[in-house]
Specification:
The protein is built from twelve helices and eleven strands. By secondary structure, it is an alpha+beta fold.
Length: 429
Amino acid sequence: MKATVEKIDNHKVVFEIEVPQVEVAKAVDKAYRKLANKVNIPGFRKGKTPRRILELHIGKEALLDEAFEIMASPAYAKALEDNNIEPVSRPQIDVVTLAEDKDLVFKATVVAKPEITLGQYKGLKIAVGAEAVTEEKINAEVETMRNSHAKMVVAEDAIVEDGDFAVIDFEGFVDGVAFPGGEGKAYPLQVGSNTFIPGFEEQVIGAKAGSEVDVKVTFPAEYHAPDLAGKDAVFKVKVNDVKRKELPELDDEFVKDVSEFNTVEELKADIKNKLEKAAAEKAERDFRNEAIKQAVENATVDIPEVMVEERISKMIEDLGANLESRGMQLDHYMKYMNTDMAALRENYKESALANVKTDLLLEAIVKAEALEVSPDEVDFEIATIAKGYGAEVADVKAIISGQGKMSTVYDSILRKKAAELIISSVEKE
């Protein structure tokens, strides 16, 4: 077998692969024996049909096609290996010559994994430091606790203000006719929550308990009910009550009721500790992410579109699995988010491109630094995976080995080691 390679552009290459006639004849014979054992022909037992009869029954072309399938895959794989090309797309196959008495000639067009040129990835300079925990942030956390334990009380003779809960009865009309689903009783509408049609809540502001108002709105053009989309409507609204939050007093008694602490000072000290810990953890994450980001930005690579599209598909597949684990379907999610698959894919494009470039960078660093994986590191990685699933280590190892995915574990470890090499060499400012 021989193969020639022609580079079409920055990404595509075309192999012209030739398989000698003697190998073609062997493949045709193998194809005959394979098909003879699969095809039922009256008067002959499986595997015993003479080749001439089999060809009359299925056609010479079917036999040659089967022989091609036998030859093409190993020939293509060898061409990739001999030319040190790693494909990132399925090959487009074009047969040039396929006959039993001739050499097989076919072309395989494929997108090759791009070469990445490393820039600086060691000794990067990055400013570090956790965000300060101020008294304002501590007080904001305390206020959140007070709000979570607030009571809703009727505000006597109050006028509806932004943030109030207006307990309303309402009925909607289009062209003077009430429409299905446009009615509600004693509905607790939080003014300013934007849960109703745009423009509705603002028109309730200023109303008093017991008063009635006409709220005029226009349904959005993309409203989920097509018969209402884009139409003008009038809602007859009666404000039954105006309710407001009544916050508990911030004193030691409140602290004892809602926490394990006895005083306001103890509660604030605990909040401060937690905020400082969270700030330190965030600073560490930001530092690590910035180190990788800078190393990626310093590298140069022309990434083929197919790699980005495949990564987007994987990200959407992961999103779908995550939604299903929470009892939601992807199509329902898109409807809820008022989006479609095209828009979702476009939304993922930038992050997918960054992810692909990061993977290429880490792979290149693994090669440049000749990083290796020890048996202990593999055992630790598998133990970590097992712990995440609550499974036995031996069972997880057997599954990974059985599925032929041990190389995936090795690649994961190597990428982590490459990332740690970048991060550990940073000069902190």
